[in-house]
């Protein structure tokens, strides 16, 4: 159980995160800075934010349960992420930046028109709010079950910190805090895995204690919910889920296409390496917590596998840092969603429809109000889900993906590749995809669905579709939705005024034209970014160094020292980089 030291560390860490909004508040001088970082963000900072915002505390609960229950099968899900970022690096990342837009919805308007802009703006609100709520519930479940923290308080505190960060500093504070949070998360999870291996008896003993069935990567069709067919068909999603127009927001703030491409390397390499470290604790639970299923307070015991192990191996102080790391992963995912949603609301609804002549200061103020409102909505939805949900956290994420993520992503992906489709192809394809998912998930399992489909599909295929719902998404929903989009080409006719065709041509022209940063943006402040983040990393490294004063066994102090050294090293490297890059630009950031 956590000590008073850990509790104090958690409190200090939350204050530290909240301060990031204050530090970067003067760096946002206008709406472009507030929503898109002024198109000047360093690639390494943007890549770090992209990496940590791509997962959440769900990694340590839902994903840990898959590792504990099925073993190396979990790496199949990360192979999908890896392939997605490979495609980003190879083609999409620079082209997203080259669209030269403030929000992803600006790109949708340019590609498909204003009706699609409004349709996808509001649909994305629903999708992102739901996913952010699942992330927040993941955090509340694990902290309330493992540490007896009231789930409502966890959700409330998390929501308040996230809103404060995104509210004061906008996109600058969001991305910068994500970068620091990533450093903390990487250091503490690496140390936790090393100490787990030491506790088990070394790498050989760790590998020997994993059950034989957990070494099976591809499972026969129908034997588990995530069989070989799910993984193979899931590879298709790697392209469209990570590389559709709505994902452009992760690259818009880069200086140019080259930096956007380089930023994708951080999550790409992160997913190649880190899963092998992250899932050591849950796979060691068979030895270190053999009675997990009998004594876990969680409704799904496997979701406690990670935290149950680290509680046994981490010393006082590092347990608090681990909880801080879980806060980090969840907060990083949510603050990006908040900032994106605020940008969509202001730039794609408020300004064009309600206040076309609004001045820049009014747009920033509207973004601040939207940030608070979306934060309240996410918090309220999470509070409702934590008391009513009967679905595992892993499956909750997959359900959100099936009902909203896939139908939304497919037309936004194909729209970047296929030119001659009618302007209604975007929203019509999404509605078709949502109806297809509803048919597969709600109608197929019913008696009427059985009577209709079993004679056609047979007595072996029909039961498989019932027991493996998520395979239906890849095997049925995705192909049909893609076919629908391509079929709309049959109805494409040039409009008399030619406005849609000219807009489409402009979309593809911009996408193919490299950005000249000095001519189009200018004012490179990369040294200033490195300087301030280097100082912050060193400050936090110093704070972790102070934890060596906590009474702990020698190995515990070695672990704390390793975490501190990691932060010190990165901070020092950033400061050296800033010094060699020349004097920091004269911005408000240097006076913070």
Name the descriptors.
Sodium/glucose cotransporter, single chain, 592 residues, disordered C terminus, 28 helices
Describe the structure.
With 592 residues, the chain is mainly alpha-helical. It has two domains: 4-524, Up-down Bundle (Sodium/glucose cotransporter); 533-592. The protein is 74% helix and 0% strand. Helix 6 (104-112) packs across helix 25 (499-512), helix 8 (151-200) packs across helix 18 (318-354) and helix 21 packs antiparallel against helix 24 (469-487). Residues 582-592 have low confidence and may be disordered.
CATH superfamily of the largest domain: Sodium/glucose cotransporter
Instruction: Point out poorly predicted stretches.
Output: 582-592
Per DSSP, the total helix count is 28
Overall form: globular
Whole-number total of structural domains:
2
Radius of gyration (Å) = 24 Å
User: What's the level 1 CATH class of the largest domain?
Assistant: Mainly Alpha
Strand composition percent: under 5%
Fraction of helical residues = over 70%
Oligomeric grouping of the chains: single chain
Question: What is this structure's SSE topology?
Answer:
Blueprint: H1 4-23, H2 31-36, H3 43-52, H4 62-70, H5 74-98, H6 104-112, H7 114-147, H8 151-200, H9 203-209, H10 228-242, H11 249-252, H12 257-263, H13 265-273, H14 275-278, H15 280-288, H16 292-295, H17 305-313, H18 318-354, H19 360-388, H20 393-414, H21 425-443, H22 447-457, H23 461-467, H24 469-487, H25 499-512, H26 517-520, H27 526-546, H28 554-580
Helix pairs in contact: 1-8, 1-18, 3-8, 3-12, 3-13, 4-15, 5-10, 5-12, 5-13, 6-7, 6-25, 7-8, 7-18, 7-19, 7-20, 8-15, 8-18, 8-19, 8-28, 10-20, 10-24, 15-17, 18-19, 20-21, 20-24, 21-24, 27-28
